[in-house]
């Protein structure tokens, strides 16, 4: 637990000032009796000061339900339940107590995995035993986190770690961005074979150093996104996607899958097998990155967002083109699911609703050609075939069935697409892939190269324009610093105070040296009152205030006119808490 909190603190410090607190640090700073019930009000005031002074306060609980653990649960905005992914998902004693207590904080399950270990499995079992968890994350951890070192050796190791900036691509940095509302999401749109360009853009995104914390998509975007969420590597994603695209060029399998066209031209068995070969029986919960995809529920006439369940089934459902494949029956409720492109072909708004600060949305939908031929009230396929085979006949521009389906997907959500393109949170990208057809899976490498070259050009411009750095900058820390700077300029002698701070004056032992905390966090020798008081409120060796004179009426009026102005207080106030 100590190594985990230090690792997380290191990642959080890249976002903003972070303070780590545990029961040992509290006792060292505030005295051995700081956690006693009689000191609760005093401790609350001191913790409030720390939360005001730091962007993030990281509370580490004890191993049992101690008063400090209860205090941590009360103070926290988000509670992390940390477990080892390769162990049995049994409930611990603290978890059982947490389940029975009325704690309204957000609860996240964090499963740790070794770098050289296998991928996540059995996540559903962990979540089923913790129905009160609102979400989960898988972290691939460095070897040092699992090393068996004494506390002294561990702190010595992490002093070296803290001297280096955290890797933005590490899983702990991803956890830090999720916890602080700085998630970067990648959303991949639908468009058939044109979606192969997604992988090229992903490769360029990796080379530009842009981390991805959340992946979502529709249709072919759901397929590519699921591969990337599982592999977290554009190269490996390309390899597996190319193998699948090759199977899509087969002629024999589709012919054998033909059926009497009542609901669709094909039974769907061949396509199901091709998707299942890629993902096997993996669950969405077992992906390394948080993932979602979108389908159209024609039973309820609504959009469905899938964040859990059978991965291959929901990917297949999101790729179900009307007329080609039958709707997929949802194994949860039996509803009929179709291609998500009919309702939301680029679901950047879904990623935003899941907490993403920035959404990189890649659109590969068809750009409709408007210069089409007028053929009258009916159309003969034989006539079209003759026009195409006859080299001397005038060319007729009429969309085929696949293109019509693609146009339907685009037209039905054009309004939503325009909203996404104009939103401030979205970085909209569209590779130049209009020359490729929906079923051009045989041109995989060519489409991939188009996406890669486009991505290199775009992300190169981002690097020169500091767009990537702005994505990684914590907006709240920036706003907080600007607000404090404005307060200093407007009220140079004022500062933060509250009732708890007035009543309790915290003076930790001057001989204490912080162990495991960053140097220069704060001074424990003087209280804020002594610093603000200046020479007028300095103390002599006997402890009596010098030069303290009653304020005149005019001075009192002047002090009242200044917002949150601190006054010089006498040494003792009636009813004040005793010093530690």
TrEMBL record:
Record's keyword terms, sorted: Hydrolase, Lipid degradation, Lipid metabolism, Membrane, Transmembrane, Transmembrane helix
Start and end residues of each PNPLA domain: 186-352
Residues covered by region (Disordered): 511-580
Motif extent (DGA/G): 339-341
GO biological process, one term: lipid catabolic process
Motif GXGXXG mapped to chain: 190-195
Protein name in UniProt: Patatin like phospholipase domain containing 6
Source organism per UniProt: Pan troglodytes
